[in-house]
Write a structure and sequence with these properties.
- The structure holds 2 protein chains of 2 kinds.
- Chain A has 10 helices and 7 strands.
- A 5-stranded parallel β-sheet of chain A has the order 1-2-3-7-6, with helices on both faces. Chain A has a two-stranded antiparallel ribbon with strand order 4-5.
- In chain A, helix 1 crosses helix 3 and helix 3 packs across helix 9.
- Chain A is α/β, with parallel strands linked by helices.
- In chain A, helix 6 links the parallel strand 2 and strand 3.
- By secondary structure, chain B is α/β, with parallel strands linked by helices.
- Chain B is 38% helix and 19% strand.
- In chain B, the strands form 3 sheets. A 7-stranded mixed β-sheet of chain B has the order 3-2-4-5-7-6-12, sandwiched between helices.
- In chain B, helix 3 links the parallel strand 2 and strand 3.
- In chain B, helix 4 runs parallel beside helix 5.
- In chain B, 61% of the residues are buried.
- Classes of the chains: A alpha/beta, B alpha/beta.
- Chains A and B meet through helix 5 and helix 6 of A and helix 4 and helix 5 of B.
Amino acid sequence: MQTLTPQRLRELDLKATDVREGIIRALLAAGSGHSAGSLDMADIFTALYGHVMRHRPEEPNWPQRDRLLLSCGHIAPVRYSAMANFGYFPVDELLTLRKFGTRLQGHPERVSLPSVETTSGPLGEGLAQGVGMAQAAKMDGADFRVYVVTSDAEHQCGLHWEAMMTAAKFKLDNLLCIIDRNFIQIDGSTEEIMPLEPLADKYRAFNWEVFECDGHDIAAFVATVERAQAVKGKPQVIIAKTIPGKGVSYMEGDYTWHGKPPNAEQAKTALAELAATRERILAHV
Amino acid sequence: MSDTQTLDRAARAMSLVDYRDTASLKQLPTRNGFGEGLLEAARANRNVIGICADLSESTRFEGLKNALPEQYLEIGVAEQMLVAMAGGLAAVGKIPWIASYAMFNPGRSWEQVRTIMALNEANVKIAGAHAGVSVGPDGATHQAIEDIAIMRVIPHMFVVVPCDSVQTKKATLALSQTFGPTYLRFAREKSAIVTSEATPFEIGKAQVFREGSDVAIVACGILVYNALMAADKLSRERGIECRVVNNHTVKPMDEAAILDAAKTCGAVVTVEEHQIHGGMGSRVAEILAAKHPTPIEFIGVDDRFGQSGDPVELIEHYGMGSAAIEAAVLRAHARKRA
């Protein structure tokens, strides 16, 4: 990974705002979909596509690419918007989200859109598949890395813990799990529905190397990824603290935005806020 | 009776052994053929691997485990993990065979099978061991008799139920070389080997094991032997000549062979060690109802669970022995005349 210069960091912060804008436009056009988690992972997806990952937008199935699996498939808008904003397809295609004939299925499908890596939506299955990819890399002596983005609520699925055990058994140090720790799910707070804490200790007990960071600080996230990738012989996890709905004031921290899109009026407000954010970044030299 | 020259012309064309000669008939579990086929496939292609969920001996993974340990992974009692991890491995070019008891994989892992294997179009192969009530003493919890139904309704899926150990080996080799999500089903107990090394095998191509034009018996799995025995007895004692079709590929089913059997014979009996509802016979019925309505009798478990017992005793109890097949043929034959 290259050094993250202040200039590059500023570009990425602007890009994250573009990604959020794409999410809002796509969700408005679709008329359904998941706002809060998509918005809160915009900074991390921007960091992954813009700095961390080895990939070729013009050659999505390049065999040496790093693999990014989105386990919580319902926040597909953030992945689609990041892909569009980093050159995989025209940004306008985001407006086809969830519509008949689209490549941008409501939940992402591998055969529909190249480099999506796997079909997801049924929760708790991404890490397990990432384990398979990381193990295949070990068997073949390939040097690509596997990144798995999961939600916190997915940890309520048993399969995720099967995957945690397996990753440790096979010493998959080419595997990095990133948790969107936003503390919400459809029915409310994760800690009320099924307490996950102490989450870091649980990973440590499963023989993972654990890191925590602010999921909205791209520089901090990139630095954490670098530390994680220096670990040998163990899989790593970054518990990224995020604010659901981040970037749109009326959505921030409100779990009811988990599974709904903005209406036209709300989208207008959101886009105005994002435009103001962009101005602030540009003004800050 | 031990002279293969006296075998039916179709049986000779298929290079069957003389299955009537019970004294010299060899018996081996179909799962043995899986173990042999897997090792051979893995030797031929290093991308062929096995992933085991704590059942290496009973699924016959041991050959691979001992001979090619670098192509073998053990993940413990975690059948959903089995499918999901295999999906990841397949996405990077591996050809994973995953095996457990059919009750747990695909039984426990069905949604992963649908999403990660089929919707994803992943080249993952499930070996479902210990299918059918002939699992015996372990009882109903371990006797998968719904697995064909839940697998055959999934788009893109290959579903193959070979008739004996020799054919299971051929199926394992053929499926290892055929891209796509796959379910190969086999049984626990020793069963009669009716095919030989020379018997052809092609995925999706049903085989006529015995010629006849009175009633067609369409069977799969280890009950093909019972079907042949029933057909021979009906010929000797009643002069009813049955065509016996080894319908090993449940999906994609050989529609032409099914239609030809129905048109030639005018009545059909399906035979499988599975629930009647939703299984191989149901697919035969779907084809015939749509294209050539024909009287059908179904041999299989009739909407019940299995139980502990001796395998042969259970096959008889649930109405899948050769006497039950004979009775079904007579019923089908009578309906044809009516």
